[in-house]
Design goal:
Structural class: mainly alpha
Order of helices and strands: HHHHHHHHHHHH
Number of strands: 0
Radius of gyration: 15 Å
Largest sheet: none
Number of helices: 12
Length: 178
């Protein structure tokens, strides 16, 4: 997504059109994986973190590609003010459109995890409802859902959260890092 956006900029296609024009990666997780910094530089200020992530993401991504970045940035900022994982996830979701595929997928994952408290069963819910509709392993929707699984499964156990996110697959290295 970033390479194509850069090519588009060089060819005088201005933002935000440079993110959309001939860019098949526009809803992948490139912006989501670079959004962490905004949460760190706006501790306790999820709205500001999400706004900074939006400005960055709209250069190379659209819709769910942008929403994933906003969600991650807002969650990281919120984590400075809360230890409650579900509250942190919800704070991040408050910064993206509620009806977006990303928000719906993450909420479905949170609900599934509450019901069964198993990352494997929760992952099965993701794949049943969203997996076959996403053609790319790096799509923002399924990877945001995997990040949510890692956070919920790990709770305050850092290692468990990372390992569960990685074990879910998809863009495993990026999800574990987030």
């Amino acid at each position: 997504a970033e390479t194509i956006a850069y090519r588009n900029l060089v060819n005088n296609i201005p933002p935000p059109a440079c993110a959309r024009f001939l860019n098949p990666g526009r809803e992948l997780i490139g912006a989501q994986i670079r959004a962490d910094a905004y949460g760190y530089i706006a501790p306790g200020l999820p709205e500001i973190a999400a706004a900074m992530a939006f400005k960055d993401a709209c250069l190379s991504h659209v819709q769910n590609g942008i929403y994933g970045a906003m969600w991650v940035a807002a969650m990281l900022a919120a984590a400075f003010a809360s230890n409650n994982i579900e509250e942190i996830i919800e704070t991040g979701l408050a910064e993206v459109p509620a009806a977006s595929r990303l928000a719906c997928a993450v909420r479905r994952i949170v609900d599934a995890w509450r019901r069964n408290r198993s990352w494997k069963r929760t992952l099965a819910v993701l794949e049943r409802h969203h997996g076959k509709h996403l053609l790319h392993e790096g799509h923002a929707v399924n990877n945001a859902a995997v990040v949510a699984i890692g956070l919920l499964e790990g709770g305050r156990d850092f290692e468990r959260g990372i390992t569960r996110a990685v074990m879910c697959g998809y863009d495993a290295d990026c999800n574990g890092a987030t």
